[in-house]
Amino acid sequence: MPELHFKGKEYVFNHHLTVPHRPLVAHPDKSVPTEPVDGECDGGGADRNLIIHGDNLHALKALLPRYAGKVDCIFIDPPYNTGNENWNYNDNVNSPILREWLNGNPVNKEDMLRHDKWCCMMYPRLKLLHELLSEDGSFWMTLDDNEVHRGRMLMEEVFGEDAFVSSIVWQARYSVSSDASVSNSHNHILVFSKAPETWKLLRNEITRDEKQAKQYSNPDNDPQGPWRAIPWDAPEVRENLSYPITTPKGSVKYPPKGRHWSREEEQWNEIVEQGLAYFGKNEDGAPSYKKYLKDAGTVVPITWWPHENSGHTDEASKELTAFGLEVDFATPKPVRLLDRILSIATQPDSLVLDSFSGSGTTAQAVLRLNKHDNGCRRFILVECENYAHSLTAERVRRVINGYEFQGVQKEELLREKITWSNFSRERAHRKILDQVQAIENLDSSGFETIKKKIKDGELIVTGENRISENVEGLGGGFTYYTLGDPLDLDKMLTGESLPDYASIGAWLFHTATGEPLAQENIREEDCYLGESATFHVWLIYRPILKFLKSRESALTLDFAEKISKRKGKRHLVFASSRFVSNKTLFPLGVEFAPLPFALYRLEKE
Predict the structure, then answer these.
(1) Checking CA distances to 391, which of 151, 156, 238, 514 falls within 20 to 30 Å?
(2) Which residues contact residue 37 at a Cβ distance below 8 angstroms, ignoring those fewer than 6 apart?
């Protein structure tokens, strides 16, 4: 497979392995508790919805001990690297070359290495996202033409060439840029899966839109409603599917050359008996059968997503304004786009991750879809910018609790292309002015103001009214997190930094087993972390230096014999030291793993 080369690749290839583990620190004052309900959606906290403020590379590493291989749908909207975004590349990679790059931040059009920096920024993040994605999950990434080709090659290196599912074209803009050589109306959505064929069986089809429904008509006033004719022939040649079919006018039809009938003769006879056979208006054409719109159901997703059913960036900006949240995002994503993605990619109990969460659109789409089908989908958002609390989380709070919208309701009254001919010909020029004048005369009573503006070569006339309305909340909740200090072995050895039981337990469990730790299984009072595929894992620990130096923190024969009564799997015990030999532990099915605190000398009793 061809390989993508970029400056700095050798330094970031395994950088995700060197990123330190940082515990998640909850902030109840910034969280929204989940109201208790009956069923599987009970509770809030770490195992429900999360919003994390911090560097997404470190946040993804922090999520691994809990969520490795558990995320069903990943959606990311990374920097498009247009040269106008002024994003910073600041990963702490141990390389003089990359450290020199940091002096060149922010990345803009004058930076001749901006594409290399973008690849360096994305590579370790994609590695960690790959670890978080479940085996039958899907990965969705939006990009534009600046990086989509490099983005796909990076994805194929990390996920594998066979993991590619599709490249979707989304009509992000409906207006035309008159100053462009060719006006760009679309973005790309790259779709990957670790197991595309398995995911194909799990993914959902989508609701038939209005345009697709128009393919059905009712020219013969069939009481069953609109229908379309489906040809009875199919590719290839099979002798058992080449039987004669007689039309109502007596003609005998055989399959066209190089084709056969799609099903056996008995099935065609059933079609005839049900009155579904169709031979065209003259009743003497090629055989087909009626398929009714009421029975058509959903359709397989296609790669062209027009703005009519997937939204556009202007719509996304207006959605933020509706919340009273105005931030200048270069590529905001409308809720309808995420609705469409999640409708295809998720089940009612899916876990969704967005590590470039921006304004929090993904969370709103998850909550909206749950409301629609009574689902229990969960979301994890990660945002590194300072607006994580004031914008990202605040939008989700308002979606959950409801909000009062005070703003301007606009209705478009006229849209007219402005060309040179409009001004060079007096009648054309006068006609446009007369249209505007007529609107002002006739429609002014229905609007507080009539506004006129020219944008992207179009004259747009809108009527505007100031409105105030209450929007009902969707319910739900989330826990707001920041990233704690890295788990530093040197500081742990001196007692300067001792993490809590759950944080160090999740880290040790994942490091030892490669599996995520289910937080609900932790029983700190019993020193029990949880069960992996091969071990019961135990941790004798308290975040107290005096305890770690005492004999209580050691693995004893009594403890080993006690846990050995749980049969079926071997036992892995993390402790600062032990008072029993491996020769004794082995027959009990117990293995000892020393904590960094093993260097402490135990206090003598």
Answers:
(1) 151
(2) none
Q: Which residues, at least 6 apart from 217, have a Cβ–Cβ distance to it below 8 Å?
A: 226, 227, 228
Q: Is the peptide bond before 219 cis (omega within 30 degrees of 0)?
A: no
Q: Which ranges of 251-334 would DSSP assign to H, the alpha helix?
A: 265-273, 293-296, 307-310, 313-322
Residues 243, 233: contact at Cβ < 8 Å? Answer: no
Q: Is 1 or 206 the better-scoring residue by pLDDT? A: 206
Confidence check: pLDDT of 245 > 80: yes
Taking CA atoms, 389 is separated from 323, 358, 359, 396, in Å, by 15, 11, 10, 10
Distance CA 350, CA 134 (A): 11
Domain 9-203+302-403, CATH class in plain words: alpha beta
- In terms of DSSP H, where are the helices of 514-564? 545-548, 557-563
The angle that helices 501-513 and 56-67 make with each other, rounded to 10 degrees, is: 80
Domain boundaries, the chain: 9-203+302-403, 210-296, 405-470, 487-599
State the sign of the Cα–Cα–Cα–Cα dihedral 189, 198, 309, 390.
negative
CB-based burial label for 220 (10 Å; 0-12, 13-18, 19+): exposed
